Amino acid sequence: MVAENNSHRKKYLFKTEILIEADTNGRALEKLLNLLNSAQVTDYEITEGIHLGETIEQVLKQTVSKRDAVKRHSNAVDLTGGTISVNKNNSAANRGPFALVLQEFEVLKQQNALIRLSVVKSRGTKLSLPCRILNVDEQGGNMSVYHVDEKQVYMFKINEIEDYTVNK
Questions:
Q1: pLDDT tens figures, 68-84
Q2: Helix, strand, coil percentages, rounded to 5, for the chain
Q3: Which domain of life is it from (predicted)?
């Protein structure tokens, strides 16, 4: 009898705007997700209103500004003491907040340096992996690495990378 009722059911899509009061955007989002994660809601998509990670973006912009002031009109020095010239027409300041970090990753890639990457994936999953950088996609904001222990290739968004250390 239940099968008969389900066969006559149709799915309906509603576009809504929901206002939730809370102390922070994160707490409001948590309340919304608790409401939406019920058995009666089949699927949902949140297209606007998530303001998480703004503090990280501000800190990265400040870090980039400080590094840019120090490195302005100079060459980037790699870890072995050599220099890698920076094209002044394509300076890191013109390419966005992750440009200097991407430039450092590019240097490490050229050196085939072994690094330990600390990554925070979605839902707070933390990874720490020894790896070598294979590719840095500046436009896409991605980086592919070779995990030296597992012998696998992983791809991460630059904003997922929490920290890295160079193994000597």
A1: 554 543 444 444 444 44
A2: 35, 25, 40
A3: Bacteria
